[in-house]
Amino acid sequence: MILGLQNKGCHNINFVTPEHVVPQIMEALPIAINMGLRLPIVYNTSAYDSMHSLGIMNGIVDIYMPDFKFWDRELSFLYMAARDYPDVAKVAIQEMHRQVGPLKFDEHGLALRGVLVRHLVMPNRVAHTREICKFLAHEVSRDTYINIMDQYRPEGRVLKKPEKYKDITRTTSLGESREAIAIAREEGLYRFDTRWMH
In 3-state terms, what secondary structure has residue 111? Predict the structure, then answer.
């Protein structure tokens, strides 16, 4: 399948939420490389990854694409049932950056190697964008490439239990999205994925 994607003209091999299949990836990639695989490997994740898995992928992954969803432990528990999510994400993103550094592109604007962090702007500031951007700028790198996303919309349990999830029962406003980009700049980040804006 990997070689088939390469033959169809894909620009990378993107493994989505792959931690639970890291052993299988490590079995498959040497075979694919021996058969001609030459595309960058992307590890596309929520950043809720173990250091063990990231250690195994060291030297294998070209591009890490983690989310940083929530900063607050209690809100992480409310929305993700993972109170330790912020702590795990911080350590994971630092390790990803240690392995591959800031995101680099080829002459056509295609990512070659590095970290691209995604942050979804949530209604009512529940994601704590400022704290996340401050962490990225000061504890990872000012050169961190960030995609600040504005496409949140309520679905699933949020709609079924609006009283429990009252702060996120609406879409993100334009003002909240603009505020998030301004916050990121104030905290020292300057490399933004803006392709979706055009």
Answer: strand
CB burial of residue 164 (10 Å; 0-12, 13-18, 19+): exposed
- Checking phi first, is residue 22 left (phi over 0); if not, alpha (psi -120 to 50) or beta? alpha
**Cβ burial 13-22 (10 Å sphere, 16+ → b, else e):** bbbeebbeeb
Secondary structure element (H or E) that encloses residue 171, with its range: none
- What is the domain count for the chain? 1
What CATH code is carried by the domain that includes residue 112?
3.20.20.70
Give the pLDDT confidence of 100-123 residue by residue, as tens digits. 999 999 999 899 999 999 999 999
Domain hosting residue 180, numbered range: 2-197
User: Are the beta carbons of 116 and 65 closer than 8 angstroms?
Assistant: yes
The Cα–Cα gap between 37 and 2 comes to: 8
Model confidence over 132-149: pLDDT tens digits?
999 999 999 999 999 999
Contacts with 173 (C-beta within 8 Å, 6 or more apart), sequence order: 123
Backbone angles phi, psi at 189, to 5 degrees: -80, 145
As a whole number of angstroms, the distance between CA 134 and CA 100 comes to 20
